[in-house]
Design a protein that fits this description.
The chain is mostly helical. It has helices spanning about 10-25, 40-55, 65-70.
């Protein structure tokens, strides 16, 4: 079994060179797409999902929504 190596090219030229190198050596590779979301935003969403899974949330009935929101 071998290790996984993660490389972060800084530009398209480096990316193309790395792909060509991997192909020449018949090394399997995949290209992951960058997320368009801010990493801080993603972290907040993940934290919120974790809190929900742990049961840390407030349930509000529809008829109480305006009162809950202070409207």
């Amino acid at each position: 079994m071998s290790n996984t190596i993660i490389i972060h090219p800084e530009n398209e030229e480096q990316e193309d060179a790395l792909k060509a190198f991997a192909k020449a050596l018949k090394i399997k590779f995949e290209v992951a797409q960058k997320s368009n979301y801010d990493p801080d935003f993603v972290a907040k969403i993940e934290k919120s999902q974790q809190e929900f899974e742990e049961g840390n949330y407030t349930r509000v009935e529809k008829q109480d929504l305006k009162k809950f929101l202070g409207l």
